[in-house]
């Protein structure tokens, strides 16, 4: 086969592999370059951060630890006798790895079925859409394409006060690989990743302290929802320290001594392991030749327009490596849009309708604007909320905490924001996404018939409440 392609994708995470499959489905001759190798270095691993060290393994551990916690603490009051419930960390990790292997192998199968050529090695974009690939033996080969899609993702940010120290101070990747439950666990950063990983290990028995430098908990989340979530996390035993700025961390006698400052002054924390979860940076190391024509913005993200076009003709970039939320589904949406644009179609990504989820317990999920954003923008709005405490299905599931909150335009009633803290918020938020994609009003949802008894009835009631008509709350 010739080394000239219609499309070469660099990176096989959810941005890149989805773009490659879509491009091939649209009849374009497509190759995908991926550098990730198996631990023995022999074979290529597809799926990127999401499948290997992100969304999927973290959710596998969240599901298992949730079941463990329920069996340990919540079964007895429901009449279920499950004595001496124990966790086998090795087996838990084997299950997690099995799920990852199945899914990453599945992508290899999809590439084959769709005719995507998979190239194993590090890709570098040269001038005129040439891609130089270096394999694990250091051999290079150059490929040419009409279009190149960069989808090289992101890497965890490291901070000088807490340098990575194997087995003690780790990033999110290391936190998915512990071989035993740490007695005391410190986490720097109360963002999505810190809270999810903290939840996993807290449910399995760790004493978890989360140090967050900012004073506002989850500032991107509607603050009524964030405050409710914080209250519930603290009730579960997560020690979340707001305004706690880490100044140093060192390993001494098999313990990590963390120094930080909060409103009360200098503090010390001793933990068995410390996870640094302060965010991620776009990954562009050794990616662009000086004359590639692709530029980065001031924060290191590849500069693209709203259609994901870079400044070099025929070169596109999607996913974590460009502006916007670092989310797998956002990366995939962009990948599909770019493939379709290359094929001559005119799709767009609706950035106002991208859902966000924190997979803690309770889950937190939202789409659209928060009250704080609308206030800043001077928009007139109305709000309807409904608590899961008044929802029969949530009670039956022993998960009757949290709420659904719907924000609508004061005049037109169009839904502007949809927020959930509570059971299965990650699934419930899809209703808000669909409603907003279709430009629904709160009344549209209020006029819809919802099955009884379901958690989704809280969506119905919150929509009714927007215009003052909720039934099951005084
Ligand atoms: P990536 O998935 O990072 O993939 C980039 C790929 O490019 C990698 O495979 C890399 O090896 C390859 N690559 C890089 N440079 C080169 C090169 N020069 N040549 C060849 N290959 C290269 N998001 C969600 O939406 N939901 C979640 O629940 C969720 N949970 C997460 C949990 C954790 C612990 C973490 C760390 C992240 C989580 N994310 C989640 C974020 C999600 O993983 C990312 O948003 C997503 O993976 C971004 O996809 P991407 O394709 O842009 O990049």
Automatic annotation (TrEMBL):
Gene3D superfamilies in UniProt: 3.30.390.30, FAD/NAD(P)-binding domain
Keyword flag Oxidoreductase: yes
Cofactor: binding details: Binds 1 FAD per subunit.
Top-tier EC class: oxidoreductase
Catalytic reaction(s) noted: N(6)-[(R)-dihydrolipoyl]-L-lysyl-[protein] + NAD(+) = N(6)-[(R)-lipoyl]-L-lysyl-[protein] + NADH + H(+)
Cofactor(s) listed in the protein's UniProt record: FAD
Pfam families per UniProt: Pyr_redox_2 (PF07992), Pyr_redox_dim (PF02852)
Span of domain FAD/NAD(P)-binding: 5-335
Keywords of this entry: Cytoplasm, Disulfide bond, FAD, Flavoprotein, NAD, Oxidoreductase, Redox-active center
Compartments it resides in: Cytoplasm
EC number assigned by the record: 1.8.1.4
Transmembrane annotation, as ranges: none
Protein family (similarity comment): Belongs to the class-I pyridine nucleotide-disulfide oxidoreductase family.
Miscellaneous comment as given in the Swiss-Prot or TrEMBL entry: The active site is a redox-active disulfide bond.
Assembly and oligomerization: Homodimer.
The protein, known as: Dihydrolipoyl dehydrogenase
Species for this entry: Marinobacter xiaoshiensis
Gene name as annotated: lpdA
